[in-house]
Amino acid sequence: MDVQGIMRFLPHRFPFLLVDRILEMDVEQGTITGLKNVSANEWFFQGHFPEQKVMPGVLLVESLAQTGGVLLMNMLDDIENKLLVFMTIDNAKFRRPVVPGDQLTLEVRKTAQRGSYFRMKGKATVEGKVAAEVVMSTAVVERGE
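Below the sequence we write its predicted structure tokens.
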């Protein structure tokens, strides 16, 4: 799925759309793999940090959440009227800096569901090396609530 397809499922737009492509998705298994190309032109590098550019950890978590959001939206009906919102971010670990020129592989797995609440585990890697890991939960709400 390319970025145009991703935007059918997520409300995020420039400068906050942080996943470029979906490489694999298995709705039945609850798994998805996305891709984020990190360019030196990213808006956040203007202040983080101009002399030694590092992608903020919170944006790594957001990239994983957006990738998981594509998966979850593919599990729902009536997605035009649904929105996913963060509930928790747990056990976030940052293992290596992500810098311009890196290509993030974003792997997310749904681990639990209770009604409209979902739990997911995500891992961001660069060239097979873990950059970030997180456990997160999200809720499905009606748009406009």
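The beta strands are 21-26, 31-37, 82-94, 103-114, 117-126, 129-142.
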